[in-house]
Each structure stands twice: as structure tokens, then as C-alpha cells.
Amino acid sequence: MKPEIMIALDFPTGEDALRFLDRFGDEPLYVKVGMELFYSEGPAILEEIKKRGHRIFLDLKLHDIPNTVKSAMRVLARAGVSMTNVHAAGGRKMMEAALEGLQEGCGEGERPKLIAVTQLTSTDEAMMHDELLIEGALEDVVAGYARNAMEAGLDGVVCSAWEAERIHSVTSGSFLTVTPGIRLAGDAKGDQSRVATPARAKAMGSDYLVIGRSITKAEDPVAAYQRCKEEITHE
Asked: What span, in angstroms and rounded, lies between the C-alpha atoms of 132 and 87?
């Protein structure tokens, strides 16, 4: 399966985000709206993006007690996004509650995909051991989170491209891997630790490639987006 690109709309205002999207004309995109933009503009920005024909991954990474997350997901279900997420570190009961809330909020409508964050791509193994006090190899910890998410009924996980193949092997081929930390060759890593090019991420089995700065900070974002598409289309 050819992976799909999600453009991370990491902008401080809705005006900035919509001006960026206007550069793509009528081309339908899959975009990620994270905390900065959502907290700045609220649900109204989701409606504006959908009016332009784009799909949305609402990346708020909920992590709280099960009842609170269930209630929040019941509300977020009304936003009409295609995908949203929680933190796998909240445990199976929390993830199960999130799924229940999302289903309840959607009623008879189509439920958004629900995925769980395993370890942030800014986390490396030394940080995981020394600061988070989590033992074991990072890849094993991520795989364990993925199994928990699958058993809770979720559709997939957020992970780095380097863990995608392992996750598919311990879950299933249809269990989604959404991979941030994607950079075009030569671009700076920024605050990410586990990065990969689009072509490399495709080879390692990523289903969705979340690409931010390599597109949004490019001199010609449309050309950068097309270059990313070409990388994953080329066999």
C-alpha cells in the first residue's frame, strides 16, 4: 500500500493556516491540526478547513482518567474529523473509554479513526530510560504500546517510521502506523530524534507520513509537497 501524506498545519493562527492552504488551490489534502492551531482558533478552524475539501487528523493527544477522556471524545466526535488520537501511556481502560466516547458521539455516523501515541519522535532511548524511567529497548516499548492499543480496539498508533515494520509484525497489516518526523533529504531534524525521508518511511511500512516543516517552511511549499509525493510514488 502506498502511504498517504498528512501536512502538519503547525501555525499560530487560522489566518496563517488558511493562507497556506490557499496556495494549493482546489487540490484536496489530508492535514494535521495540532494543539497550537486548535487552541488558538477552536472548532471553527476545523469547519473552515473542511469547507475547502480537506480531511483532518485532529492531533490533541488526550491523556487523562478514562471517564474524562470518554467525555471529551464524545464531544470531539461532533467535529467531523477523519482521525484523532490519545496517548497509549494512559492504558487500555483509557483507550477503551476513548473509543466508547467517540462511538457514542458519532451515533449512526461514520466514526473517525482513533489512534494512540506510543513514544514521541522527540524521545530517544536514553531519555526514555533516564528521564521517563521506562526500562527496555525503545522499539520493544513502542511495540508493547501498539499491542495494548490494538487490544483496546483502536485503529492504529503514532510512531516513528523506524518502528512501523515491527508494529505491523506484532499487530496486523491493517493496523495503521502514522509516522511524524518525516524530513526531505538535507532538511534539519529540528527537535525530532527519530526521523526518516518519505522514501525510507515508505520502505519501512508507514501508512501515513506526517510532514510539517519540510513542506510548510519550504520556499515553495507546493513544490515540496509534490516532491514528497514523488518519493512515495516512485517504486
From this structure: 15
